[in-house]
Amino acid sequence: MGMLEQLIAALSPRRAYERELWRQGLDGLRGYDAASPGRLNAGWRVHNESAELTDRQSRDVIRARARDLERNSDIAQAVLSAYKRNVVGKGYTLRARTGDDQLNNQIERVWRQWCKARNCDVTGEQSFHQILRMLVERKKIDGGMLVLFRYTRGGVVPFKLQALEVDELDTTRTVPKTAGNRVVGGVEYNRYRRPVGYWIRQYDIEGWQLLEPLYLPAKDVFFCKTRHRPSQLREMSDMAHTVTRIRDTNEFITAVSVKERIAACLAVLIKKTLPTGGVGRGGYRQPDGQVDYSGKRLGPGMIMEMNAGDEAQIVEPKGAATDATAFLKSQEGLIGAGQGLSYEAVSRDMSGATYSSARQNAIEDESTFAEDVELVTQFMSEVYERFVLSGYLTGLFSMPDFWERQANYLEHSWVKAPKKWIDPTKESNANRIALASGQKTYQDICAEQGKDWKDAVDETAEVLAYARAQGIEMGGILFGNGTTAAEQNTARPE
């Protein structure tokens, strides 16, 4: 109600109420229902701020609550597991594209060695793919993770990775290293809001914070996070949309579990007129004169004596166990939707899914995972380029005119490990039709299977050649006309 209506209400509440109704009606005609200040939106008070100002007030609390769910919630772990197994899964295979097959093989062989824990991690504890899985997990829970590029001795090349949590950014730092920049949340930005450096907290061996933080230039740091608004500077947990619903669901599950445990206990309470141990209630009284029931718990098959004059009152909530399944299914569906996932991806419940629905959900989920896959492959490409550069500078890779042909030498691709088919027969037939009709190429199909198409052709040719040398014809499809290799060989003159 406006100020004028409030003044009128002091003299005539009826007139003030009528004016307010008419004003709300006019507001509804002039604007959006979503902006109407009417009764239904009376408690919806909002204001516009920059993303950083909004996030700064809630970032630490949301991160702490998301971490609590990570430790204690099976539903939160289901969401995390869905992302880890679909974004990273069994890992990625490098395909170097320098144009020199011998150099490509050498780079790929050394890369596989470097990906081992002792070569890629400064702590020597995590392999490269384990770091990737942690990257996905920390981005979902914390909103991001810092990876430092360290150039140290040891390993196949003098280059390793160091993972840091976002908590290690020194948020107390306000003075920039370079005049004209500004420091926000431990990150130094230039006038274009581009990160130019990171201020990292330093601790001694006993965990006490040192006075001066460490400054690292942005070129040596990869800050894995997702920006949702142009004014966003720091990270925000991806679980922010669903933490309250996950916690409510956990509390409901706990309440139903306790109720069902109590309901499963059959107990008999015997009320006696004259209880054993004395006259009246004397046998139950403590030195202070109080009647004690402490230590009495309801258990299966329990028989307990009650005090004279006492009467048991049983509280039996109705409906929780009966409605639990439907409630949990709806909640898990909403939690999955809040994370862009299907119900089946979060709950792993396939009882109501058909092939078509499961396939459609898998396709939609893949689109959701694509955003994080893009971020992970961007990180991997940054690491790969520094790996190749380190190998070249140490003389491990022979690359003539490297600085002039740098783009060619750094050309590469990533092949993701394949997932199992829902229905191999239907998927194979679909690929065969798509290949015959030109909707897919053999390269596309091999990429979906996590293979390089040239390697697949070479392997097939090697198997067929060896089988024919042993007098065995294994067939093999000649794409385009549908004839088999055996038929082609029969028609081919010796």
The main β sheet shows up as: 4 strands, antiparallel
Radius of gyration computed on alpha carbons: 33 Å
H/I helix tally? 16
Question: Care to count the β-strands?
Answer: 11
The portion of residues assigned to helices is: 40-55%
User: What separation lies between the terminal Cα atoms?
Assistant: 97 Å
Low-confidence stretches: 480-486
What is the chain-wise order of helices and strands?
A: HHHHEHHHEEEEEEEHEEHHHHEHHHH
Q: Going across the biggest sheet, name each strand in turn.
A: 4-5-6-7
Structural class: alpha+beta
Q: Assign an overall shape.
A: extended
Descriptive notes:
With 494 residues, the protein is of the alpha+beta class. Among the domains are: 3-41, no CATH class; 53-64 and 101-225, no CATH class; 243-280 and 297-338, no CATH class. 46% of the residues lie in helices and 10% in strands. It contains 16 helices and eleven strands. The termini are far apart. Mean pLDDT is 82; it is low at 480-486.
